[in-house]
Amino acid sequence: MSSSLAINGPRLLDQLKRLADIGRTPTNACCRLALTDDDKLGRDLVVRWMKELGMAVTVDPVGNIFGVRTGTQPDLAPIMTGSHIDTVRTGGAYDGNYGVLAGLEVVATLNDAKQNTKRSLVVGVFTNEEGARFAPDMLGSLVYVGGMPLKEALDVKAIDGARLGDELVRIGYDGAAAIGVHKPHAFIELHIEQGPILDIEGVKIGAVENLQGISWQELTIVGQSNHAGTTPMYLRHDAGYAASAIATFVRELTRKMGGHQVGTIGKVDLVPNLINVIAARATMTVDLRNTDEHLLQQAELALDEFIKELAQSEGVTITSRRLARFEPVNFDAALADRIAHHAEALGLSQRRMTSGAGHDAQMLARICPSAMIFVPSVGGISHNPAEHTEPEDLIAGANVLLATLTELAN
Ligand code: GLV
Ligand code: MN
Ligand code: MN
Fold first, then answer.
1. Are strands 370-375 and 205-211 parallel, antiparallel or unpaired?
2. 0.90 exceeded by the pTM?
3. Does ligand 1 come within 6 angstroms of the Cβ of 357?
4. Which are the contacts of 226, defined by CB distance < 8 A and separation ≥ 6?
5. Which of 213, 254, 303, 390 is the most exposed place for a label (fewest CB within 10 A)?
6. Tens digit of each residue's pLDDT (9 = 90 or more) over 308-337
7. What separation in Å is there between the alpha carbon of 398 and the centre of ligand 1?
8. Residue 138 alpha carbon, nearest atom of ligand 1
9. Alpha-carbon distance 402 to 201, whole Å?
10. Is 130 in the pocket of ligand 1 (CB under 6 A)?
């Protein structure tokens, strides 16, 4: 039915640019942290585009937005696509945004061709996928699939102290639709790879079959501030030193474990953060990921043991607060096959792959068959203003999405 259809590339690229212009910083980054004023402006624009496409728009109480293009058999469970439009503070133009706007482009293409689908098509925009302002990441889709109670989500505090529920009200996205209102028959998320594999191998499409587990914690180290010049080394309880020892340990651990183990210390705050004062307190985050749950647990355990020894030897207290913990996810193999099939039918090289990043699709996989389509990220750069995907690759990925969604919906 849709084999001859192709998306309108210039229209997709133009919309990507217009969305990226919202929250653009002087250093050309995209900064739309979840539920900020700029996130609201981005949401408003996407909702306007949904309405212009004739979609019915619903917003749920955690701020997830859904645009629905009703099928000829609306009693059947819909096919859902989508992603997120929140960004990290120093984000690029495509992370998340591409999956949402390509979903709208699929709808626009079907509208232009006056083609109906049997099942309705839903484009979802999930709240706070990044987890950069509120933890955990993928919060909106997690609530959507019943993995976190709404009340708990609304009470989450931002890194700037704001309460998530209050921010939703403030920007006008505390919707009334029931949580989980559109239960999908299948979910497909199109995303940039954000890693180097497709780019290095010169492959155009990734059919994503699994996604690695994520362990996030915040460590608070309390020592004693004292004079940097007068305090003998053996009398110190240095929270700054302890934080660096943990960072070094995490890097060493990943080197020893090898394989898919990665570890990142992305945020460290010292108090009082002065040149001649031993730090009294350090707050730091640890992000550990592995495709293998057992190995991820081993990494967590090794870190726990190191922290206990360090607390003793340095005479500091170290407490941990869990920010996120998601096991590795296997996507639906048959859907990954369909993605690979459509890529090849369009003359695009493809390979099966693993996602290193977290995505809303990993949450949707709890309630329906789900899979992802990746396109190359030049140089494997993401969460960085330099994030780039060649326009022809963005268009190719959207065409694979079009073919996959129309097949599933018919
Ligand atoms: C979300 O983007 C993550 O993988 O950190
Ligand atoms: Mn993303
Ligand atoms: Mn991201």
1. antiparallel
2. yes
3. yes
4. 235, 236, 277, 278
5. 390
6. 999 999 999 999 999 999 999 999 999 999
7. 22
8. 1
9. 24
10. yes
